[in-house]
Amino acid sequence: MKPRWTCVQLLMLFLLGLLVVSLAFVGRLAGSLARPPRVAHAVFVKRVRSGDASHNIIRVEGLNAAEAYLNTVRLNDGPLYVLVTSLRNGTAPDWCELCDAARQPVATAFANAPPSARLLLVQVTEEGWETSKFTLRPDTQLEIRELPTLLQYNARMVTTLLLAEAFVSDPLLLASVFATPHTAATSPRVVDVTTVDEMKAALNAFDGAPIFLYYVSGRYVSTGRLWCPHCDRADVPILSYFRAYAAPNATLLRIVVAKTVDKWHDLANPFRTQAAVKLTGLPMLTRLSLSGAGLPELIEYVEYFEDRDQLRAYFQQNPAPTG
């Protein structure tokens, strides 16, 4: 017959096992604290062009890894762009068709960016993307609503939305985003307007040269993003297409109708009560030009802003191609 364990022996055995487990846990914890922090799944890639210019591309997997990297960034080293796109599953077709279409145009345009520019390429899995869309994330400043999305990082988790979805594969828009800023003497003008009086003064000074009135929201103080998400998404495409296709003597009035959402919904908002131009929503784009009879007329853009053929034709004041 096997000897029986007494209660005291069982208790001593239990305490000994507990001590061994505790020592192992403390050892692992001390080791992890001694290691320097790192960005999960981060791979640093340096691409060298002709001459001395070089571009940095940093690849990370997942939004958490992206945020960890952004918390280490020094913007005085050069501008930082963030491209959020899909992560391919091996050789399977890309689960995000727009992401697949944007890869080569982005690479081509970024090759012509200033040498100090950096691109953070954030790749997300389909499962991770679907999960993040329905999770209350504490860092809502990134505000990634669609894939692909191209942002510019402004420090402290604050970003500017540049392009989203089909806009990310547009060579003209990508060139305007990555190119070195310059202003040609013959370029059409963009004028910022914040009051009804400024808008009316511009309309009263109309001399036949086309004037485009572009109504948008103000910005969140905390993030710098336009509080109207549709305005935030359309801002760069509209301004870029205007500069590319409008006549050199054209002017675009970028009219901010309200600093906050509450001020926009206020029925006493001056832009709501004025009668010179009836606002139909935000963003809104309309054109003041001479009709065939030589009279001033307002023509609102009513197509989707994503329809770039229509948008180009509107700024060129030509009928859009059909068929």
UniProtKB/TrEMBL annotation:
GO terms for molecular function: protein-disulfide reductase [NAD(P)H] activity. Residues 61-166, 198-288 form the Thioredoxin domain. Coiled coil: none annotated. GO terms for cellular component: cytosol. It holds the Pfam family TXD17-like_Trx. Belongs to the thioredoxin family. This is Thioredoxin domain-containing protein.
